[in-house]
Amino acid sequence: MDIEIREVKNNSVEIANVKDFLYGQIMEVYGIGPTPKFHYDIDGMEEYYLLPSTNNFYIALDGDKIIATAAIRAYDFDNELFRGIYTKEDTASIWRLMVDKNYRRHGIARKLVDIMEEFAKNVGYDRIYLHTHRYLDSGIPFWTSVGYEITIEEDDYDETTHMVKYLC
């Protein structure tokens, strides 16, 4: 398998292809279509990932086919649990790590995480925050296998688990 991983280019055709891939994955995994409350960053990809120098969006390609995505941006999650703990200056957050089911268990997600962590170090972040959901069978096992630690497990409707990794 000859997979290429690279940054998303800021052009309308590629951005449209990335959005199509993401919305297809979201429908497959979560059973929902585009929802502005949850997917505002996808619709505003340029603003959230491509224009700020402290943020980035990556795709994995098998030929011309997008098979995985991952994004990293300055922490901007407005959650009272973390006010005063994480800031946009010292904390990055991971978003939209999605791998096509036909390409899972081939190390693609790990490579994407490695690339994002290296980017975060180079930009000057001290740590990376993310959240996942306990109903996703591979979520917590994957993230702990790459060094992320659980900070809080919520008893909310979405079974949210918050995680962090220090980049020291």
Considering the chains and any ligands shown, give keywords for the structure.
168 residues; alpha+beta; 33% helix; globular
Could you characterize what this model shows?
The protein has 5 helices and 7 strands. The model has no long low-confidence stretch (mean pLDDT 94). The chain starts with a strand and ends with a strand. Strands 1-2-3-4-5-7-6 form a 7-stranded mixed beta sheet, sandwiched between helices. The protein is α+β, with helices and mostly antiparallel strands and 168 residues long.
Look at the helices and sheets and give the structural class. Answer: alpha+beta
Oligomer: single chain
Number of strands: 7
Strand order of the largest sheet: 1-2-3-4-5-7-6
Main beta sheet: strand number and arrangement? 7 strands, mixed
Shape: globular
- What percent strand? 25-35%
Please render the helix and strand layout as text.
Layout: E1 3-7, H1 12-30, H2 36-43, H3 45-50, E2 56-62, E3 65-74, E4 91-99, H4 108-123, E5 127-133, H5 139-145, E6 149-153, E7 160-166
Parallel strand pairs: 4-5
Antiparallel strand pairs: 1-2, 2-3, 3-4, 5-7, 6-7
